[in-house]
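Technical annex, item 7. During the second reporting period the consortium partners agreed on a shared format for inverse folding records so that results from different sites could be compared directly. Each record opens with the tokenized structure and is followed by the designed sequence. A conforming record, contributed by the partner at site C, is shown below for reference.
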């Protein structure tokens, strides 16, 4: 049954810079009686979390992702500790904040908390995603392509051998829409092969690294033909997105 005492929140931290917290996220973090999040959160957000009980949220807990990286017994134990701590805090009338970078509902590793505690009616607190921050870094009209005004968000690993989903990149490429790839476990060579099914070789491409991080943010420019070579010049960070589409050649938008 829904509780009328405590409250559970899934809170976006933005892209990682403390000054990108929303005012609402800041308020909830300061008011929380129990916090779960990335291991470095108490240091990175010391102003909001100093002295608060803290547990690591665990990457992918309460989703199948966790069970692919560890034994069922180990995952059950990890989830059990967090389940007990959260429910005890809520039952005592406390506020629990589960912290997640970016948009918690968009490939977010903590999204499983929403289903695991659905009976507590958890609330998502939105924030600045890496997608929004990367759009700002590019400073152009994402929906202003010459032949399409749509945007597709997908995963680079959908080009990997053996992927059987209906959204293989070769299929998505047919529309020539603006395509944004989150790049976990991405083989850029395979990505290029798949995208050639729809995009010409001279299609502009941008790699946005560390989107939203004032000190590290960087944009690399290429075309589909040169993407692999440009990317090979440096070690790309985990935090990067790949943008594909002729909208990159029309900063002000080429609206129909």
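Designed sequence (site C submission):
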């Amino acid at each position: 049954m829904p509780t009328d005492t405590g409250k559970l929140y899934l809170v976006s931290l933005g892209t990682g810079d403390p000054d990108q917290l929303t005012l609402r996220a800041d308020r909830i973090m300061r008011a929380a009686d129990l916090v779960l999040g990335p291991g470095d959160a108490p240091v990175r957000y010391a102003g909001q979390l100093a002295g608060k009980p803290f547990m690591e949220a665990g990457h992918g807990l309460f989703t199948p992702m966790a069970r692919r990286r560890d034994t069922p017994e180990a995952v059950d134990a990890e989830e059990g500790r967090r389940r007990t701590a959260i429910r005890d805090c809520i039952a005592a009338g406390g506020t629990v904040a589960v912290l997640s970078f970016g948009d918690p509902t968009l490939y977010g590793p903590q999204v499983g908390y929403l289903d695991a505690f659905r009976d507590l009616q958890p609330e998502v607190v939105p924030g600045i995603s890496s997608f929004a921050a990367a759009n700002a870094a590019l400073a152009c009209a994402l929906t202003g392509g010459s032949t399409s005004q749509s945007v597709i968000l997908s995963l680079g690993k959908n080009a990997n051998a053996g992927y059987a989903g209906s959204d293989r990149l070769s299929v998505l490429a047919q529309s020539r829409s603006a395509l944004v790839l989150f790049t976990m476990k991405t083989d850029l060579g395979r990505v290029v092969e798949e995208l050639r099914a729809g995009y010409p070789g001279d299609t502009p491409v941008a790699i946005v690294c560390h989107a939203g991080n004032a000190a590290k943010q960087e944009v690399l420019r290429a075309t589909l033909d040169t993407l692999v070579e440009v990317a090979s010049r440096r070690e790309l960070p985990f935090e990067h997105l790949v943008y594909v589409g002729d909208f990159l050649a029309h900063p002000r938008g080429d609206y129909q």
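The two ends are 51 Å apart (CA to CA). The chain has two domains: 7-128, 131-249. All partners now use this format for quarterly exchanges.
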